[in-house]
Amino acid sequence: MAEPLASHVNLSSLPREERLARMRHSAAHVLAEAMLDLMPDAELGIGPPIDTGFYYDFRLPRPLTQEDLAWLEERMRKSIAKSHPFHMAKITRAEAEARWAKQPFKLDLLQDLDDDNITQCTHAAFTDLCRGGHVNHTGEVPAFKLMSIAGAYWRGSEKNPQLQRVYGALFETAEELAAYEQQLEEARRRDHRRIGRDLKLFDLYDEVGPGHVVWLPAGATVRRELERWIEDLEIERGYQHVITPVVAKRALYVRSGHWAHYQDAMYPVMEREGEEYCLRPMNCPHHIMIYASEPHSYRELPIRIAELGNMHRWEKSGQVSGMSRVRIMTLNDAHIFCTDAAMVEVEVEGVLRLMEEVYGTLGLKDYTYRLSLGDPEDHEKYVYNPPMWEAGEALLRRVLQRVGLDFYEAKGEAAFYGPKIDVQFKTAASKDETLVTVQVDFHLPAQFELEYVTEEGARARPILVHRGILSTMERMVALLIEEYEGAFPLWLAPTQAVIIPIADRHLPYAQEVAAALQQHRLRVEVNARSERMNAKIRDAQLRKVPYMLVLGDREVEARAVALRVRGGGDLGAVPLEALVARLVHERNTKALLP
Ligand SMILES: [Zn+2]
Ligand SMILES: [Zn+2]
Questions:
Q1: Comparing C-alpha atoms, which of 170, 28, 46, 194 is closest to residue 108?
Q2: 128 Cα to the center of ligand 1, angstroms
Q3: Which stretches within 439-524 are classed as H helix?
């Protein structure tokens, strides 16, 4: 017999997190109750609380629809209105097996439990296998909404059946729920996948492959501007740009350690003429080959080798997404070979200052620096060498302080061979992501037995600094699309101005204006379609073009343009020469706003 367990709880005395977890978990029970009403043959998975609400996994006879979600939510509200109490009880294995005889996932869960630790929870006519953690009755389930349906594998493994997961949002008050929905709405509005499609920046084709981004002319223009800019900044700072192949023999990655640590994330090996080749997962080994190809004196160091390098990662097809998770990417990469710690310190400082300059120019603000430390207790995950770790961590901390950057420290986030500085960004969906890192590496120089000749004529091992600034072009452009909501500053805008002749007789002057701007490498278009002026302006606004130049009789007469700025401002008549000067200045200074 089921043995009842006391489970009354005073919600208001609990910490907020626990209270919310109980509410969310209870709502998942109510969702399962509703689902069995909709589809009595539903097989139940699990229904835990999550950060923003709850979910429940089901195996169902058919795919769920939006109408189903609305019906389930309504059905849940009915159960909540009745304030059904939640009753916990202890049961035997035999009772549990009988109760869930037709619920294969519950039977599977049951195998994880000890005989004296099997409990169930009942409310209304619904009973679930559950270890507890509810509110007292369904009436204590507050503001919620069923949000979406997604696929999920049982126990998270592809080898298991695929289930349908219903997500719900739940907060203590209607205001908090509304704020959360608003935040989601903003993330949707800024989503680079949607904007990228609307503005024809990039595309993904099933025939080309998941995660293989195709840059359309507009997106390729944004990327080219960023690439030229960063290459120039690097060349000014003594970086030497190289171009190395995207394929190498497998043996190279065996020596670098990538094969041992990384092969699951690599494309399969290609074999021809008895040799094995790989698409490279990282650029480091190639740059190391360049360094190792000739002897170096201490006088030549630091040597800074940079490349917009193509890399390949075998992400699972279910995990690729837009341009933020892709399989083929181009990293703004560099490797700096240094003699000693003092040189590393100077170089890392230079990298941080370049980051500040670049992110400042791009107008990015939502980022922080993280000093990622090892864990002295964890000898499995990290190379055991306490003096190396202490020195490396102190060095990076000192540089961050000297440059005057805000940073926080995180234990257990280092690479296995050394500490690093991570630049942490917040995405439109409010997720924290590492954009780029600066790593101090003693490991690869040893793997490749790199050397330089010291002042005294002895041989010494250089220290390697790996660094990115713009991250991968895919991730940076995705971030910028979300940051600007598609309204790029003039220097990055794919089309910088649209010229709008009011009537056909203004077309020759429109061509003249276009030629005057193109002479200064400004990207302009003449909209010669036979539409009304307002339609042409609206079209340019939707495409987020920074400037619209309207031409009628008066403008032809005065050799001027009627200037309109993206977002609505009408600046009136501007002489052609002043317009050219204005746009060139705005482009050259990389101004953020028109
Ligand atoms: Zn429960
Ligand atoms: Zn590297």
A1: 46
A2: 7
A3: 443-447, 473-484, 507-518
